[in-house]
Amino acid sequence: MDKFSERKHWRAILKLCEEVKQSDRKPDISIYNTILRAYIPLGSIKHSFKILEDMKLANVNPNLTTYHYLLRTWSQAPTSEQDPYLREQIFEMIVNDGLQPDLKIYECYIDSLLAGEECERAFEIFDSLKSKNIYPQLELYIAMIRKAISINEPRIALNYLKSLEQNLFYAPTSLYNDVLRICAYEYYADGILYCWDKLKHRGLNLDEGVCIDILYFAGSHGKPDLVVQVIEYLMDVRRLKLEKFHFSPLTRAYVNAGDIKNAMESLNIMRQAGFQVGFFDTSSTGLYSLIRKDKRTIDNAYYCLEELHKEGKIVDVSALNVVIAACSNIGYKRNVDMIRALETYKAAEKLGVQPNVETFSSILLVCLSAKRKDLADQLWKEMLELKIVPSSLAYNRMIAIICTQDDYEEAFAYLEEMKAQNLLPPRSVYERIINKCVRHGDSRAILALEEAENFEYKFPRSFYQDLEDQGFDLGLAKEIIKNQKKNFNQQKISSNVNNSDVMNEFVDIIKSQ
C-alpha cells in the first residue's frame, strides 16, 4: 500500500483496501491513514469521514496525520462539497482528541480557509502562529503573500514579506516584483519605496504599466529621485521610446517637493526630449498653483529663472510664461500685479528667452484681470511686430479685454479677424459678446447668437430667457436673419462693403421691424 501511495496509484490503493476489508486482518492507524491519503486527490470528503467512523468503531485512535489528510481532502473537494462546518468539525476533533495542532495541521487549515475565500480568518490564524511557537515555512509565507496580492491588500502583503525576511528566509525576486506591482496599483507608498529599494540591487522586472503607476505615485508624493530612476529603467533596461507623460511626473514631483527651480528646469528637459511644453504642463503639474500663492512665491520663481540663467542653463519659455500668468491670480483673494507681470516680460531678453504666442496670451490674461485695454493694445502690436501669429487663446483674451470696456466695437473686428485666420471662436467668445450687447441693448446680440448656433454651440434655456427679458424678440430676429442671409453673405465677400456696414444694416432692419 505504501508503494502504491508513493507512486500515487490511488485507484490501486482503494482496490487493495477492499481486499483488506474482506480479509480477517485488522487495519491499524498506518493502513487507515494510507487509505485517507488515497482520497486526497479525489477530493472525496464524504468517503474520508466514513473511514474515520470505521476507525473509531475499530477502536483505532486518529492522530495528527489523520486530520492532516482530512483537511487536505476537504481543500481538494469540489466547491459544492466544501462545507465550512465540516472543516471546523475536523479542527474541533483535533482538540477534543487531546492533540496539539502542529505546523502541518495549521498549513492545511489555512489552505482550506484560502480555498474557501475566507481570507480574513486565514490571516488571523496565520498571525496567531507566532504566539503558539509555530513558525511557518517559506511556502506558506508565499501563499499568504500571493493571496494578499490577489485581493488587493498591499499592506498585508508587505508585512508578510518583511516577516519572511526577519525569519531569515530568502524571498524570490519575483515575489518582490509582484508585491511592488500591487503596491504601485494601489499607490501604497511604504510598499513602493521598500520594494523598489530592494529590487534596485536584485533586479527589476516590471512592465511599462507598473512603471507608469510608480511614476505618477512619485510625482504626487514629491519623489523626483524615484521618477529619475524609473525613467532610467525604462530607457536603459526596457529600451522603450518614452512619451511626454513619462516626463511630466518629474515636474510634478519637484512641485510637490516645493522645488520651483528644478521644476522649471524639468520643463526644458521635456523640450529637449522633443516634446512641446506649454501652459497646460505648468498648470497640470501644479507649478502654476505653487507660484501664484503670494507675491513672495512669484518673486522666488523669478529669482529661480535668474539663477538658472546664471548657471548657464536654458530657461524654458514656458517657465517665464507661468510666472507672468501667476501675476493675474495671486493668492486666495485673486489679486492682480500688472507691474510684476510686465517686469517679468521685459526680462525675457536678459534671460535669453524668446517670447512666443503663449507669452503674450499669459500677459493678456493679466491685462484681462486688470481690465487694462491700453496695455493689451500695445502688447498686441508688439506681438505682431515680432511676427508672432496670434492663437485662438490670444484672440479670446483680447476680445474678453475689449468686452470689459464701455466701447466694445473692436470686439467684432477681432472676431472677424479670428475667423479669417481659420480659427474657430470658442463659445465663450460669443457669450461675452452677446452678454455685452444685451447689457447695452445692442441688437447685434441676436446676430452673434445666430452665428454661434451655426457653429452648433448650445446655450442653456436661461440664456435665451435673459435675452427675451431684455426685450429681444428672438423669433422675429431669426426670421429676419433667415430672409436677409443671402444679402449678408454677398455683402461680406464684397470688396465695397466692410463688416461694420453689414452690422449697421442688420441693426437698422431690426429697429425698423
From TrEMBL:
Q: Entry's InterPro entries?
A: PPR_rpt, TPR-like_helical_dom_sf, TPR_mt
Key words of the record: Repeat
Gene3D superfamilies in the cross-refs: Tetratricopeptide repeat domain
Q: Name one GO biological process term.
A: mitochondria-nucleus signaling pathway
Pfam families listed in its UniProt record: PPR_3, TPR_24
- Residues covered by the Pentatricopeptide repeat-containing protein-mitochondrial domain: 208-347
Lineage: superkingdom? Eukaryota
Does the keyword section mention DNA-binding?
A: no
Q: Is Transferase among this UniProt entry's keywords?
A: no
- Whereabouts are the PPR repeats? 28-62, 356-390, 391-425
User: Which NCBIfam families does the record associate with it?
Assistant: PPR
Protein name, as recorded = Pentatricopeptide repeat-containing protein-mitochondrial domain-containing protein
Which species is listed as the source?
Rhizophagus irregularis
At the highest ranks, the source species' classification is: Eukaryota, Fungi, Fungi incertae sedis, Mucoromycota, Glomeromycotina
